[in-house]
Amino acid sequence: MLVIFVTTTACTQDTVDVPKPDYSQLPLPIEDVKPLRGLIDNSFQDKLIAGLNKNKKWKRLIEQKKMAVGLVDLRDPENVKYARVNGNVMMYAASLPKIGILLAAEDALEKGELQDSEEIQQDLRLMISKSDNAASTRMIDRLGYDKIESVLKDPIYELYDEDYGGGLWVGKRYAKTGARHPEPLKGLSHAATVSQVCRYYYLLAYGKLVSFERSKIMLDMMVNPELHHKFVNSLEKVAPKAKLFRKSGTWKNFHTDSVLVWGPERKFILVALIEDPEGEKICRDLVGVVEKVFD
């Protein structure tokens, strides 16, 4: 009888270290981005509410639906935490919805519906960094209300969604003349909810507005704001090394602000809509409350 012995030799291979993704720069190179609405963290939410309610005036404004706050923790880009108070309460938002004009413009440029020019690039930067009304009005006239609305309502973004209280809306030139194109729920001409603005910055941070490349262009437009009030006034003190991507708005008693903070220690989105004469100060003080929420 012939017996054959077969021996096997285990092959060993050197372990290959998979490099960690680089999350130091924006936009973030993550393809599978979870919907922000599904990332509400109860503990994070409770801490935000508790911090806001310590101020009796803020608590009253929140109860009257005259103050809304949204906060997104991006310190771990693959484990995002979201909290909001009056998240779907739509309010008049003054110049903050100019970020909707920026999105519509980049969408039109991407599709060849708008011919790029030095004048357009200058107007976009003036509109965002200095909140220039004349530049904003020129961009509205170039795009038209139908284009802006179609982009904000686009199923890809749903930044204005009647099922979630409305959201971002631009329905009037930033000028004394011109017809109004109000949003359908409350008839506001310039509107926002903190939830939809948080979603805007969230999608932008992950390169999901128009395209990764267009998102980068939009971030470059929004970085280093030239108006140093509200959130920026406080953030420049507590986070001097962070990059700030920001758009705010003010009209009479309506004070709004929104920022994406990206620094060595702080990575978050903060949005506030306030109807109160002291809204500018409330925005400045709100940064200190958010600092404690992250503790």
Describe the model:
This protein is an alpha+beta fold. The protein has a single domain (36-172, 180-293), classed as 3-Layer(aba) Sandwich (Beta-lactamase), CATH 3.40.710.10. The chain is 38% helix and 17% strand. It contains ten helices and ten strands.
**Quick one: overall form?**
globular
CATH topology: Beta-lactamase
> Can you identify the CATH class?
Alpha Beta
User: Biggest sheet: strands side by side, in what order?
Assistant: 2-1-10-9-8
Rg, Cα atoms, Å: 22 Å
Distance between the first and last residues' Cα: 77 Å
- Number of DSSP E strands: 10
Q: How much strand?
A: 15-25%
Summarize the structure.
The chain has 295 residues and is of the alpha+beta class. The chain has helices spanning 42-53, 56-63, 98-111, 118-129, 133-143, 145-152, 194-205, 212-222, 230-238, 279-293; strands spanning 67-73, 81-85, 91-92, 160-161, 166-167, 169-170, 190-192, 243-251, 254-262, 267-275.
Question: Any descriptors?
Answer:
single chain, disordered N terminus, 38% helix, Beta-lactamase, 295 residues, three-stranded antiparallel sheet, 17% strand, alpha+beta, 10 helices, five-stranded antiparallel sheet
Question: How are the SSEs placed, and which strands pair?
Answer:
Blueprint: H1 42-53, H2 56-63, E1 67-73, E2 81-85, E3 91-92, H3 98-111, H4 118-129, H5 133-143, H6 145-152, E4 160-161, E5 166-167, E6 169-170, E7 190-192, H7 194-205, H8 212-222, H9 230-238, E8 243-251, E9 254-262, E10 267-275, H10 279-293
Antiparallel strand pairs: 1-2, 1-10, 3-7, 4-5, 6-7, 8-9, 9-10
Helix pairs in contact: 1-10, 3-5, 3-6, 4-5, 9-10
